[in-house]
């Protein structure tokens, strides 16, 4: 019986899939996690935002983000292709303490994390930084430069957050795709080289 398989080069070509990497976008309430995922994602991001209600009064601290009227209750999800052989799957974490149980599930299998920080509420970043330090998950700190926020150097932010010297600190604008992409590229470099 004749074989239906041919020996042509086209039939024996090997196709490789890009490496898929899970990245967390973390930080405190209102820091810009949903914005970052949305600005950089090449697909329509999945969002699990709900309207803030009277039930959150006294629970969610709106200091510095008084105009915020929604919150992420589970996660944000997006995807960005960094190169032909590397695709990042982005998982934005919820920012409130009451949703912290979701972090452990989202962190499973994550290669690294971006901790977004806001200079108007810099001390609120400590919980996220501590989370990744405790789990020895590589991370970078990206200061989301809000229009009404104070501007500080990365050295000042590193000192204020008491970061180890090997943790990269960057300034970014989470609304801008190119800025968010540079943060993600720096995270991947940090994970790959440890520097």
Overview of this protein structure:
By secondary structure, this protein is an alpha/beta fold. The chain contains five helices and seven strands; from the N terminus they run E-H-E-E-E-H-E-H-E-H-E-H. The chain has helices spanning 33-40, 101-107, 126-134, 154-161, 177-193, and strands at residues 19-27, 46-51, 70-83, 86-92, 112-117, 139-144, 169-172. Strands 2-3-4-1-5-6-7 form a seven-stranded mixed beta sheet, with helices on both faces. Helix 1 crosses helix 5. The longest helix is centred in the last third of the chain and has 17 residues, at 177-193. The radius of gyration is 19 Å and the shape is globular. The termini are far apart.
Brief sketch in words of this structure:
The chain has 195 residues and is of the alpha/beta class.
Main beta sheet: 7 strands, mixed
User: Strands of the biggest beta sheet: in what spatial order?
Assistant: 2-3-4-1-5-6-7
- Distance, first to last CA: 60 Å
The amount of helix comes to: 25-40%
Q: What series of H and E elements makes up the topology?
A: EHEEEHEHEHEH
**Average predicted local confidence, pLDDT:** 84
Radius of gyration: 19 Å
> Structural class, from helix and strand content?
alpha/beta
Large-scale geometry: globular
Tally the helices.
5
Given as residue ranges, the uncertain stretches (5+ residues, pLDDT < 50) are: none
Total count of strands: 7
Strand content: 25-35%
Please give a handful of descriptors for the protein shown:
7-stranded mixed beta sheet, alpha/beta, 195 residues
Summarize the SSE layout with pairings.
Layout lengths: L18 E9 L5 H8 L5 E6 L18 E14 L2 E7 L8 H7 L4 E6 L8 H9 L4 E6 L9 H8 L7 E4 L4 H17 L2
Parallel strand pairs: 1-4, 1-5, 5-6, 6-7
Antiparallel strand pairs: 2-3, 3-4
């Amino acid at each position: 019986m004749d074989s239906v398989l041919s020996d042509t080069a086209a039939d024996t070509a090997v196709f490789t899939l890009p490496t898929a990497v899970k990245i967390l976008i973390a930080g405190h309430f209102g820091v810009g996690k949903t914005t970052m995922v949305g600005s950089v994602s090449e697909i329509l991001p999945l969002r699990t935002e709900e309207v803030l209600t009277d039930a959150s009064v006294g629970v969610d601290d709106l200091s510095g983000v008084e105009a915020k009227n929604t919150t992420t209750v589970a996660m944000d999800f997006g995807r960005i292709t960094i190169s032909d052989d590397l695709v990042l799957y982005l998982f934005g974490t919820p920012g409130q303490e009451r949703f912290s149980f979701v972090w452990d599930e989202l962190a499973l299998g994550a290669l690294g994390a971006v901790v977004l920080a806001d200079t108007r509420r810099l001390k609120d970043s400590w919980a996220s930084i501590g989370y990744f330090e405790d789990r020895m998950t590589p991370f970078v700190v990206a200061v989301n430069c809000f229009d009404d926020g104070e501007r500080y150097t990365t050295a000042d932010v590193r000192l204020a957050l008491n970061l180890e010297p090997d943790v990269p600190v960057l300034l970014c604008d989470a609304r801008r795709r190119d800025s968010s992409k540079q943060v993600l590229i720096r995270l991947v470099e940090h994970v790959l080289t440890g520097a």
